[in-house]
Amino acid sequence: MDYNLLILLGTAIFCGFFVQTVVGFAGSLIALPILLIGLRLPDAIAYISIFYLFSSISLVYKEWKYIDKNVIKKLSITSIIGIIIGITVLTFSQPILLKKALGVFILLYVAYVGVGKIDIKLGSKGTVLFGVLGGFFAGVFSTGGPLYVIAVKNTVEDVKIFRATMIGVLALVTTVRLPTLAVGGLLNGGHLKMSLIIFPVFILAQFLGGYFFRKIDELFFKKVLLGLLCFSGIALFF
């Protein structure tokens, strides 16, 4: 057994899903740069996708009655198209270019969150475009969430339904991404075996994230998080 991989994977999954549980975003953007210290980008995406599936099953079960199924239907076809394109790019592109692109994506995400998530009004064509783009970035970097936030906000106003629908959309994306990765040869039994070994770390991250969510200054934590993301984005780009 590769103990270095276990330590790297455990650290990345713990940090990523702890942050995801505390502030509700940026889990994969935290985990990816850590995983890329010792893994190829396709392997890193495979591991993150598996743990997002674990997370999605629990969340969808809890939020099912609040999910706007019409929004899910509207984004499903465009997301599938985007995911297939994204995983094709992930399979055949040069790793160094993808790392630089990930760095740019992280910096843009920090800018987007830092200015307060500017509202963007979309028509039907815009929603289709953001569905494809969300699927594309979910396929390449497992990070299509910000684009889906923009698309869903244009349809859903109630905060509780919005949150539940985002959980449903991201669960759909994860469910489509895993078999597509497997068909593309980017996910295999080795990834599943290592993920099951690390699964208790994932549970611990969610438990501690839920505990600290009630204890820490969320605004301060978000500022520190955005600083870390900015640093990792610059490091990946250069």
TrEMBL record:
Alphabetical list of Pfam families matching this protein: TauE (PF01925)
Superkingdom, natural source: Bacteria
Membrane topology recorded in Swiss-Prot or TrEMBL: Multi-pass membrane protein
InterPro entries: TM_pro_TauE-like (IPR002781), TSUP (IPR052017)
Main location, first listed in the record: membrane
Coiled-coil portions: none
Subcellular localization(s) per the UniProt record: Cell membrane
Keywords: Cell membrane, Membrane, Transmembrane, Transmembrane helix, Transport
Residues annotated as transmembrane: 7-38, 74-92, 127-149, 161-187, 194-213, 219-237
Protein's UniProt keywords contain Ligase: no
Protein family per UniProt: Belongs to the 4-toluene sulfonate uptake permease (TSUP) (TC 2.A.102) family.
PANTHER family: MEMBRANE TRANSPORTER PROTEIN, TRANSMEMBRANE PROTEIN YFCA
Protein name: Probable membrane transporter protein
Organism expressing this protein natively: Autumnicola patrickiae
Organism phylogeny: Bacteria, Pseudomonadati, Bacteroidota, Flavobacteriia, Flavobacteriales
